Amino acid sequence: MNSGEPGDVRLRRPERTQAAMTVSCPDELVPADHPVRVVWRVVCRLDESGTLAPFYAPVKAREGSAGRDATDPKLLVALWLWGCTDGVGSARELARLCVESAPYRWLCGGVTVNHHLLSDFRVGHADALDGVFTRVLATLVEQGLVAVHRISQDGTRVRACAGSGSFRRGATLNKLLEEAGAHVAELRSLLGDPEKSAGLSARKKAAMARAAREREGRVEAALARLPALQRRQAALARKVSEKDKVKGKLKEPRVSTTDPEARVMKMPDGGFRPAVNVQLATDTSSRAVVGVGVVAEGVDTGQLEPMRGQVEARTGREVGEHLADGGFLTLGDVERASESGVTLYVPPKPPRNRGLRGSEYEPRPTDGEAIRAWRARMGSDEAKEVYKGRAATSETVNADLKGYRGLVQLTVRGLAKAKCVALWCALAYNVMHFGRHLLA
């Protein structure tokens, strides 16, 4: 007879020590319509066309020679493309995801990778990576998706891999170089003595020697960069007033001992931090990234012509109209663009004294014909309507690369490596937006 009393609670509890036999296939890790499959198919298509051939040239593992097999560069390209698509900007994070995340495990297909391999590959094939970016653009141009007639350019500051406290003046750099040299000599003596270094493994000895050499090399590179900054400072000193000099606005130049090519720049939040200036050119009709550059200048002046040349070389098409903000403007750029048949849409800077100089769109007595035409053009309603396309393209692309492609803080040093990172992010952006067209 039922007494009405409830029985013991029945629950499903995890049993982690229970052995189980499972049959699985790596291809089942992601569904058939997962975006990672598009990335892999695009990489395979690039490999079939021979675009990835430069990545294979340095591989030493060959048939008939001893040694372990090399990791397929096609896999590494796909991992970094998908990592940038997923906002991953660190080799260590990417290596962790290759163990824990299904899409990355699907790409690996049982092949193991570590952060050293991923990090070296990311920045070790600059020319090959540049070629892939160019080939993707050429395909989009051939399909009529990218016109290049009108491009928009903008510069965005990206935090460099250097601390604010790593910047040193010339006297301190010379002192640090002496200390680094003495440390290298002392370490060489220590490692060369079997008794003193008996407790150190060969790997530890190599790591200590490498760290000492790299430190000395960075200080030497910082000293090598100092004369150029001093010349620039001297040129700037001739343009400022004595009042500003007294106020101390011109300080002795300093160079980072962590990344000698990084500079302290004003960031979007108004603060000043070590950074590099990433230049991006975007096709306004398709919003594809068509040009990538990295400079160590905190200002954008002087970047219009190099970017136009890069875009035209990559696509084989001529740029007819070039949009940029006022930070790029020099009157020389306007004149040279006019000579090349390029229409610049760059707003003139407002005069400091409107009562004396009038509107920025009014011609000045010293203006040449090209400058007068530019001022009149930028004052028209048609030009203002065209100029709206700059924010609609460049600003959205910058936000996409920083918000979703991992272009936030660099984990590499030097402009060459920083450009590789920017190229990976821009390439991932283009592949994700035009992947299915690249497979057509």
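Second entry:
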Amino acid sequence: MKTAKISLDDRVLVRQCQSGDSAAMERLILKYQDRIYNVILRISGNPDDAAELTQESFVKIIENIDNFQGRSSFYTWAFRIAVNLTLSYCKRQGKLGYRSLDVGSEDLNGGERGRLREFLADKSVCDPAVITANKELCELVIRGLMKLDDNHRAVIILRDIEGMSYDDIAAVLNVELGTVKSRLSRGRDNLREIVEANLQ
């Protein structure tokens, strides 16, 4: 029920934005800016780049709001702009594959840490009781995440941290559903190997 209300609110706000209502655009920005910033930060690994790219993403969203036709949710459309802008920026800067290790577990909220721990527990990296109690493991996971290639990292961030559905991830990344699933599987396997190697 709550999801439907959020979707309805977005549709109303988007229509108001398209009619020139700047207050409606401000509400949309406030609603999504933290989530978009966090996803950009996870992909870029740099808080300064993430802040700049978040601002640039919202500039693009504002510039293109009249072109939004509602074929996907506003949330998916906005994330597509932000993620594609970030991946393009990182490729141009040669930053993919090299990430600041300053982006650690302290930047994750409890829900994000929980999702990462659940996925690691499901893959039997180590005893779930150890995972729950071990802050160092969470830091290893984040560091390992920063070592993945951009395609695998983006899918894991959108699924295991942001909690997006497979369909939404496919729409954001503009890839087939099967591609999302295979990248997620390979990315999780690679991440698990990196974490396990650091646990030994």
